[in-house]
Specification:
It contains five helices and 15 strands. The chain is an alpha/beta fold. The protein has two domains: about 200 residues, Leucine-rich repeat, LRR (right-handed beta-alpha superhelix) (Alpha-Beta Horseshoe); about 45 residues. The longest helix is centred in the last third of the chain and has 51 residues. The N and C termini lie far apart (about 160 Å). Bound molecules: 2-acetamido-2-deoxy-beta-D-glucopyranose (5 copies). One 2-acetamido-2-deoxy-beta-D-glucopyranose (NAG) binds next to α2.
């Protein structure tokens, strides 16, 4: 009797333990999303405390339902699929762990003061369709491997401090419908496959590229005229150098002549003032 009762309570304990474990699993989020958000929160600085509810308990379960408790996080099927943190005075850098948000479709950190490089790990976000990092302080180059995110629709990197050339691989992104790298420090020739489509009709016009002093080629000004102006500047420089050399040489000659003449005159004076014996 006593033994039976014991067996029964053991079973009860076991069953409740199992139930607890299952519900705990259901209630807890994805460890990849947790790593992504935890690390992003660490590298971003939030001086205005706009991310006040980005706290540890929420990281472990960012998507309890359709809605996330975390400001700027949108969920789909229990996973983070949109991160929209625009105009929140954020600083700091983008964590390389951003790639642990493996279901991310949209990353929008526009209009902040985020600095550092665009982490190369972004290339492994294979579902990424929207990348909007415009109006920040990002530096470094745009990796050609960004083209591995083959679903990219939107690449908006305008108004940053990005340098280097525009990788021509980006022109192979078949779904790209918005591309803006204006107002950066990019250089080199604009890849033809970004500027053109089907021969002559423009894919992205000048407004996508302007505001980069050293960027050239269609749809911006061609290098030729810029090349000429560079040659002209070099020419003017060389010319004025030679001219100033000639002028100073002439000056020295004239000065020498004058002093010679003066000396002769002095000598003459001296010889004149010398009494003749
Ligand atoms: C984050 O991603 C890296 C590389 O993709 C992986 O090795 C690591 O296990 C992930 N971290 C977590 C906590 O899931
Ligand atoms: C988190 O913060 C945002 C912005 O301040 C707010 O809209 C949202 O309701 C907050 N969510 C929770 C669960 O506190
Ligand atoms: C950005 O935020 C500031 C203050 O928080 C606000 O005044 C401004 O209108 C916002 N800008 C945009 C474009 O939403
Ligand atoms: C990127 O974000 C900025 C500011 O939030 C917005 O004005 C712009 O339209 C966005 N870019 C695209 C291509 O949607
Ligand atoms: C350039 O293209 C954008 C859309 O991609 C359009 O809004 C804009 O008017 C175009 N500018 C010119 C000068 O054609």
């Amino acid at each position: 009797m006593l033994a039976n009762r014991h067996r029964f309570s053991y079973r009860l304990i076991l069953i409740s333990l199992l139930t607890f474990e299952t519900s705990r699993r259901l209630a807890s989020g994805d460890s990849n999303d947790e790593a992504c958000l935890t690390n992003l929160h660490q590298t971003l600085e939030d001086p205005s405390n706009n991310l006040h509810n980005w706290t540890k308990p929420f990281f472990s379960n960012p998507c309890p339902g359709f809605e996330s408790n975390l400001h700027g996080v949108t969920c789909n099927n229990g996973r983070v699929y949109k991160l929209t943190l625009t105009n929140l005075s954020l600083r700091g850098t983008i964590s390389p762990f951003i790639s642990n948000c493996t279901n991310l479709q949209s990353l929008d950190l526009s209009s902040n003061a985020v600095s550092g490089e665009i982490p190369p790990q972004i290339q492994s976000l294979s579902n990424l369709a929207v990348l909007n990092l415009s109006s920040n302080r990002l530096s470094g180059e745009i990796s050609p491997n960004l083209a591995r995110c083959s679903f990219l629709n939107v690449i908006d990197l305008h108004r940053n401090g990005l340098s280097g050339s525009i990788p021509q691989q980006l022109g192979t992104l078949a779904r790209l419908s918005a591309f803006d790298v204006s107002d950066n420090k990019l250089s080199g020739q604009i890849p033809g496959n970004l500027a053109m489509r089907n021969g002559n009709s423009p894919r992205f016009n000048a407004s996508s590229f302007e505001g980069n002093k050293k960027l050239y080629g269609y749809p911006l000004e061609e290098m030729k005229s810029k090349g000429l102006s560079v040659m002209a500047i070099v020419g003017i420089g060389l010319g004025s150098g030679v001219a100033s050399l000639v002028i100073s040489f002439t000056g020295v000659c004239v000065w020498l002549k004058v002093t010679e003449k003066k000396m002769e005159e002095e000598e003459g004076k001296i010889s004149h003032s010398m009494p003749d014996y």
